[in-house]
Amino acid sequence: MKPIRTWVLIADAARARVFETRGRGTGLTAVADMVLDAELAPSREIGTDRPGRSFESVGGMRHALESPSDPHREQKRQFARRIADAVEARQAARSFDRLVVVAPPVTMGDLRAVLADKVKAAVSAEVVADLTNTPVSALPAHLAEHVAL
Prior knowledge:
Elements: E1 6-11, E2 15-21, E3 29-37, H1 43-46, E4 53-55, E5 62-64, H2 71-92, E6 98-103, H3 105-114, H4 117-122, E7 123-128, H5 139-143
Parallel strand pairs: 1-6, 6-7
Antiparallel strand pairs: 1-2, 2-3, 4-5
Helix pairs in contact: 2-3
């Protein structure tokens, strides 16, 4: 019987890495070509100078206009889309059977919004935690109840 390949995606707003396990006793192995990084510039460096100004409809007062979106937040959403596209391509190539997604709350929400339905069907567990800076040797303790390592 063929072992079930489970991928563990560990991501935050700027980094993502994927590990593979093939069942109990096999541990976690890094998937070399599934390490993604994003350069997130601060919002002050992304936008234009000052926001535009508008006149009051009655009277001569002027008010600053607010930006319709936060460009820094938009960069984070685009990075989640990059992660989803990479995982979807690898699923189409049958690189894994199950997927465990580990991410902080905001990133988890971004990933849920952009993951394809086929990928969502392969998700066996979601862990809301930031483990991107956790050493590989410490990951099994955090994932033991979600993945057979």
